[in-house]
Structure formats: C-alpha cells, structure tokens
Design goal:
Rossmann fold; 6-stranded mixed sheet; two-stranded antiparallel sheet
C-alpha cells in the first residue's frame, strides 16, 4: 500500500510541476475515487484521475503523458522474455541493405499497413511496443529513440497503398479520397504517438520517472514560453487570443459603465429636495462625457523577440476586431504604423506577410534601437496618444547599448491615460548586458510576459477600475 501512496503523491506532485493546477483537496478527491474502482483496470484508473484532477481540455495531453509514465501499461517488453531483434539482411559488401530492400522490415511494414487499414488500436499499440523493442535502440547505443523505428518502418510512405486498398477503382480527388486521407493521416499520427510514448516508457525504466518527465513533458499551453512554441502550438495560441481579446474588450466596457455617474449636480439636487421639504433624499449627478476606450500598441519586431512579436501582433489583430480605435505600430530601429494591415476582416496570415514586406521598420542597421524608434514615433505619431489612450509597449528593452530617449518616453507616458510595458524576457535577465529594463521601468510599469497565463493576468489587471 505504501508503494501505491508514494506513486500517487509523486504523480500529483509531477502534475503540479508541469503546470496543472491540482489542489490538495483535489488530490484527496482522487484518493476517494480510487477506492471505488478496480485498481487493476488501467482505463478506469486513468478516468478516475482525469475526472478529479484535470480542469481544462488543454491539460489532457500533459496529464495522459504523465499518467503513462507513472502508471505504465507494461514493464520491459511486456512479456516474459525480450523479443529477439530481427537480423538485418546484409548486402554483398557486408553492410545492412536499405530498409526498402530488407524483407524483414518489409514484412513489418505489411503488418503495420494492415493495422492502419483496419483501425485496430489495441493491435497498433502492441505493434508499437514490439517495433520499439526491435528498432528503438540502435546497435551500440544505450538509450531509446523514436527516430530509428520511424526511419525503418516509414509509416508516412504507406498512404498510397492504404488509399488504393480503400478506394479501389473510384475516381481520385473526390470527397471519398479526402475523408480516407484524413482518416489514415490520423491513424499514422496515432502510431507515431504510440511509438513516442513507448520510447518514453523505456527511457523512464532506465533513467527514472522524474527525470524523464522533466525532459519529455512540455508545459501546458497557457504556460508555454512564446519563444519556444512550435508552429502547431502557435496555432493553438492563436485560438486562445480571440477569447482573451473579447474578455479584455468586455472588461473595458464594463469599466466605462461602472463609472457612468458623474460629479454631483448641486443645483439639480437642491431643486429635487424641495419636494421632500428640503431634505435631499435623491442626489442628482452630471452625465459623464462618453469615453471610448482607445489603445496604442508599440511592438518590437526585431529577430531577438520574433516569436513574442508574432504572438503580440496576433493579439493586436484580435483587439483591432474588437475596437474601432486601436492603432498599432512596429519598430526595429525606426517606427512605422501597421494599423492598416490589421483592418477588420483581413486574414491574419496575409496581414503578417504584408507587414514583413511593406512596413518601414529598418533605419540603418536593422538592429534594435529603442531610442531612435521612440524618437521617430514621437515626431511622426504624437497625435496617437491622448488622455483617452492606453499605451502598450511590447519588447525586451535591449537597445544594443544605443540611446534610450528616456525624456521622450516620459512625456509619452504622461500624456496617456495609462501606459504599460510587457517584457518577454525572464525577470532575472533584466538589466543584464544591454538591457535597460529598470530604466524604462521607472517611467511606466513593466511586466514580465512570456506566456499566455502572464498575458491573461496582465489583461485582468488592465481591466481593473483605477482611481481617476
């Protein structure tokens, strides 16, 4: 029983370390759920843990990966003895022939094609375990690799065979082929995931579960560093931007509505009190002038913050669709307005391409020069900042030891209703090297913003009512 308790506490601790919000109470809920199921039923065990510990669909892949490490489906090869690695066919020169000419590998490919064709998930899982045992550890290597399995079996090259088996003599290019291609693409991806999971399990047995989890498990989407996001993860982040922009817009509108009552109108209050013998039972207020939230975004578009700039431009794009008064500017060593690229209804990919090709962001060197960029902004676009404007600057505050234009930025922040700076670098790296984070941070609040969670927290703070 102690072993199960240790396994449970270690699993819950690893979920928290990976960024999943698991409270002590939820850990106890999981323990109570385990008392009602058959612990030998691995599917029920997974479902009980998921029901009590996972709050968001985006957290499920991380949960499943850690569950498979802490509660593996098999030990070793999953059998009483290790399968013998098939001998590679040797050519006339004594070297192994290419996989395409090896009859043993071709037999395995035929078996894999049959499983992909039938959609037998349980059989595909068993085949992945066998394939990793046979091809996952190259000769002379101590570790396990997915690349050896996928290189030997080349599942992506089976698509033509699978389509031919399903479609027969049907005309190509129609709906039937598109559906079949999507189905087989998903099954091939499933096989690749099974191979990767089996490799992780093998590595965990050799090096330890905790070490493997720290290396293999990526943080959940909301805590993923913008700079390290893959293309697929950037697509997922893009989907998260629009709800965030809508929430920010609604909070700003609420902020305006909460403050609709203006200053006390003394004369109207006294007149109204005559009906009650001079007692001011009801106060009268002057109507406030309508205030439409405005936003000015000034974004560093240099290579050093390219991933962060890409994401923040996505946010700008989303905000531009929520407000009619958002002006966006980008800079490297000079500044140009990019609002026109983010007009409502425009395609975000087209907007990014036009920005890269047409925007005038380079002055001389093409390296970050915050001082000159701020000076150009103030000279050309001074009218963009008004007492109704929130100014948002996005960048790492690294100006390559150039000028900083601190007095100009102080004036810009003073003219704005609010001014903020989002810095994608970890706070520990501020003021190192050519960073001027603290000097800029003295002029306007600077926030660390490296992931979606930090950006969401900033948006929530931005929407909070402030004293006028």
């Amino acid at each position: 029983m102690a072993s199960l308790v240790d396994r449970h506490t270690g699993f819950v601790a690893e979920l928290r370390r990976a960024g999943l919000p698991v409270s002590v109470a939820e850990g106890l809920d999981a323990v109570r759920a385990l008392q009602t199921i058959d612990l030998l039923d691995r599917a029920a065990l997974r479902a009980a843990y998921a029901a009590t510990l996972v709050k968001r669909p985006q957290h499920r892949p991380t949960f499943d990966m850690l569950f498979d490490l802490w509660f593996p489906a098999a030990v070793g090869d999953g059998a009483g003895r290790a399968p013998q690695r098939p001998a590679r066919t040797l050519g006339d020169d004594g070297r192994p022939v290419p996989p395409a000419l090896d009859p043993e590998i071709q037999a395995r490919r035929d078996e894999l094609a049959g499983l992909l064709l039938s959609g037998d998930d349980a059989g595909l899982r068993r085949f992945a375990r066998t394939a990793v045992a046979e091809y996952g550890r190259p000769p002379g290597q101590e570790s396990w690799f997915s690349s050896g399995v996928l290189a030997a079996l080349s599942p992506d090259t089976l698509m033509a065979r699978l389509l031919g088996a399903v479609l027969g003599g049907q005309e190509r290019g129609g709906m039937a082929e598109r559906v079949a291609r999507r189905t087989f693409r998903d099954r091939i991806a499933r096989f690749q995931d099974l191979v990767a999971g089996e490799v992780r399990r093998r590595i965990a047995e050799d090096t330890g579960v905790e070490r493997t989890a720290r290396i293999a498990v990526r943080p959940p989407l909301e805590r993923l560093d913008f700079a390290g996001a893959t293309r697929a993860e950037m697509e997922a982040l893009r989907r998260e931007v629009y709800p965030l922009a809508r929430r920010l817009a609604s909070r700003l509108v609420q902020k305006q509505r909460h403050g609709r009552r203006g200053r006390l109108d003394f004369r109207r209050t006294v007149r109204a009190s005559l009906a009650s013998g001079g007692v001011p039972l009801t106060t009268r207020h002057r109507p406030r002038r309508p205030h439409k939230p405005e936003l000015v975004v000034l974004c560093d578009a240099s290579d050093s913050v390219s991933a962060f700039a890409h994401f923040t431009l996505l946010l700008t794009f989303a905000l531009r669709e929520q407000f009619s008064k958002v002006r966006a500017f980008a800079f490297i060593d000079t500044t140009d307005e990019i609002t026109k690229y983010f007009s409502p209804g425009a395609d975000v990919a087209d907007a990014m391409a036009r920005l890269a090709a047409e925007a005038d962001l380079v002055w001389i060197t093409g390296r970050s020069n915050y001082g000159h960029a701020i000076k150009v902004f103030d000279e050309k676009y001074r009218d963009a900042i008004t007492p109704r404007t929130s100014l948002l600057i996005l960048g790492d505050a690294r100006s390559n030891y150039g000028e900083l234009s601190l007095p100009i930025l102080r004036s810009m922040a003073g003219r704005a209703r609010h001014a903020y700076w989002l810095n994608p670098e970890p706070r520990a790296q501020w003021d190192t090297g050519d960073s001027a984070a603290s000097r800029y941070g003295e002029l306007l609040p600077m926030y660390e913003c490296r992931n979606l969670a930090q950006l969401t927290a900033f948006a929530e703070e931005l929407a909070q009512p402030r004293p006028q």
